[in-house]
Design the sequence.
Protein backbone atom coordinates (compact mmCIF):
# COMPACT_ATOMS: atom_id res chain seq x y z
CA UNK A 1 0.00 0.00 0.00
CA UNK A 2 1.61 3.25 -1.09
CA UNK A 3 1.11 6.84 0.07
CA UNK A 4 -0.96 7.56 -3.04
CA UNK A 5 -3.50 4.89 -2.06
CA UNK A 6 -4.27 6.77 1.15
CA UNK A 7 -5.15 9.88 -0.90
CA UNK A 8 -3.83 12.22 1.79
CA UNK A 9 -1.44 15.16 1.52
CA UNK A 10 2.15 14.08 2.30
CA UNK A 11 2.43 16.19 5.48
CA UNK A 12 -0.81 14.96 7.05
CA UNK A 13 0.73 11.86 8.62
CA UNK A 14 4.09 10.53 9.80
CA UNK A 15 5.39 7.07 10.58
CA UNK A 16 7.90 6.22 13.26
CA UNK A 17 9.41 2.80 13.89
CA UNK A 18 10.07 1.65 17.44
CA UNK A 19 11.12 -1.60 19.05
CA UNK A 20 8.34 -3.97 20.02
CA UNK A 21 7.88 -4.91 23.64
CA UNK A 22 7.31 -8.27 25.22
CA UNK A 23 8.71 -11.68 24.35
CA UNK A 24 10.51 -12.48 21.14
CA UNK A 25 14.23 -12.80 21.81
CA UNK A 26 16.84 -11.30 19.51
CA UNK A 27 14.48 -10.08 16.79
CA UNK A 28 12.40 -8.00 19.22
CA UNK A 29 15.46 -6.66 21.02
CA UNK A 30 17.36 -5.58 17.90
CA UNK A 31 14.83 -4.63 15.20
CA UNK A 32 12.43 -1.67 15.30
CA UNK A 33 9.39 -3.24 13.65
CA UNK A 34 6.49 -1.59 15.49
CA UNK A 35 4.94 1.27 13.52
CA UNK A 36 3.51 4.40 15.13
CA UNK A 37 1.42 6.14 12.51
CA UNK A 38 0.43 9.65 13.57
CA UNK A 39 -2.32 11.27 11.51
CA UNK A 40 -2.94 15.02 11.66
CA UNK A 41 -6.63 15.60 10.76
CA UNK A 42 -6.23 19.41 10.74
CA UNK A 43 -3.58 19.20 7.99
CA UNK A 44 -5.37 16.56 5.91
CA UNK A 45 -7.79 18.80 4.05
CA UNK A 46 -10.82 16.85 5.29
CA UNK A 47 -14.07 18.74 5.78
CA UNK A 48 -14.98 19.89 9.29
CA UNK A 49 -17.87 17.40 9.53
CA UNK A 50 -15.61 14.47 8.59
CA UNK A 51 -12.99 15.63 11.11
CA UNK A 52 -15.65 15.74 13.84
CA UNK A 53 -16.85 12.21 13.03
CA UNK A 54 -13.24 11.02 12.83
CA UNK A 55 -12.46 12.36 16.30
CA UNK A 56 -15.58 10.70 17.69
CA UNK A 57 -14.69 7.37 16.07
CA UNK A 58 -11.01 7.49 17.07
CA UNK A 59 -11.74 7.12 20.79
CA UNK A 60 -8.55 6.22 22.68
CA UNK A 61 -6.45 6.67 19.53
CA UNK A 62 -7.02 10.44 19.75
CA UNK A 63 -4.18 12.32 21.47
CA UNK A 64 -4.49 15.49 23.54
CA UNK A 65 -3.17 17.50 20.56
CA UNK A 66 -6.01 16.21 18.35
CA UNK A 67 -3.84 13.77 16.39
CA UNK A 68 -4.75 10.15 15.78
CA UNK A 69 -2.10 7.64 16.84
CA UNK A 70 -2.26 4.12 15.40
CA UNK A 71 0.23 1.53 16.63
CA UNK A 72 0.75 -1.70 14.70
CA UNK A 73 3.04 -4.42 16.05
CA UNK A 74 1.34 -7.69 15.15
CA UNK A 75 3.79 -8.67 12.39
CA UNK A 76 7.52 -9.37 12.37
CA UNK A 77 8.43 -6.95 9.59
CA UNK A 78 8.26 -3.18 9.31
CA UNK A 79 6.52 -3.33 5.94
CA UNK A 80 3.71 -5.61 7.13
CA UNK A 81 3.15 -3.44 10.22
CA UNK A 82 3.21 -0.30 8.05
CA UNK A 83 0.55 -1.80 5.79
CA UNK A 84 -1.54 -2.86 8.80
CA UNK A 85 -1.38 0.65 10.31
CA UNK A 86 -2.28 2.31 7.01
CA UNK A 87 -5.14 -0.14 6.48
CA UNK A 88 -6.54 0.75 9.92
CA UNK A 89 -6.26 4.46 9.17
CA UNK A 90 -7.91 3.96 5.79
CA UNK A 91 -10.81 2.05 7.38
CA UNK A 92 -11.23 4.74 10.05
CA UNK A 93 -11.27 7.48 7.39
CA UNK A 94 -13.79 5.53 5.31
CA UNK A 95 -16.13 5.20 8.31
CA UNK A 96 -15.78 8.91 9.12
CA UNK A 97 -16.44 9.90 5.50
CA UNK A 98 -19.87 8.20 5.54
CA UNK A 99 -22.42 10.67 6.90
CA UNK A 100 -24.77 9.22 9.53
CA UNK A 101 -28.14 8.06 8.31
CA UNK A 102 -30.85 10.63 8.98
CA UNK A 103 -33.66 9.14 11.05
CA UNK A 104 -37.12 10.14 9.97
CA UNK A 105 -39.54 9.82 12.88
CA UNK A 106 -42.60 7.73 12.08
CA UNK A 107 -45.97 7.28 13.75
CA UNK A 108 -47.88 4.04 14.15
CA UNK A 109 -50.72 3.70 11.64
CA UNK A 110 -54.34 3.92 12.69
CA UNK A 111 -54.79 0.20 11.96
CA UNK A 112 -51.81 -0.82 14.09
CA UNK A 113 -53.16 1.25 17.00
CA UNK A 114 -56.56 -0.47 16.65
CA UNK A 115 -54.96 -3.95 16.57
CA UNK A 116 -52.91 -3.13 19.66
CA UNK A 117 -55.94 -1.90 21.58
CA UNK A 118 -57.94 -4.95 20.48
CA UNK A 119 -55.20 -7.23 21.79
CA UNK A 120 -55.13 -5.36 25.09
CA UNK A 121 -58.93 -5.65 25.37
CA UNK A 122 -58.82 -9.43 24.80
CA UNK A 123 -56.06 -9.82 27.38
CA UNK A 124 -58.02 -7.65 29.83
CA UNK A 125 -61.14 -9.79 29.35
CA UNK A 126 -59.14 -12.98 30.04
CA UNK A 127 -57.75 -11.54 33.27
CA UNK A 128 -61.17 -10.16 34.24
CA UNK A 129 -62.73 -13.62 33.82
CA UNK A 130 -60.09 -15.14 36.08
CA UNK A 131 -60.78 -12.52 38.74
CA UNK A 132 -64.54 -13.13 38.85
CA UNK A 133 -63.95 -16.91 39.00
CA UNK A 134 -61.66 -16.52 42.02
CA UNK A 135 -64.14 -14.37 44.04
Sequence:
Amino acid sequence: MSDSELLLPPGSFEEKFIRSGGHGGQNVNKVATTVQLRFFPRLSGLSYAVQERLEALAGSKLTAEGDILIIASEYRTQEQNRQAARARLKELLARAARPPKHRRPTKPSYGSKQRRLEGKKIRSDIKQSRRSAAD
In short: The two ends are 79 Å apart (CA to CA). Strands lie at 13-18, 34-39, 68-72. The first helix runs from residue 3 to 6. The helical segments are 3-6, 26-30, 48-58, 78-97, 110-134.
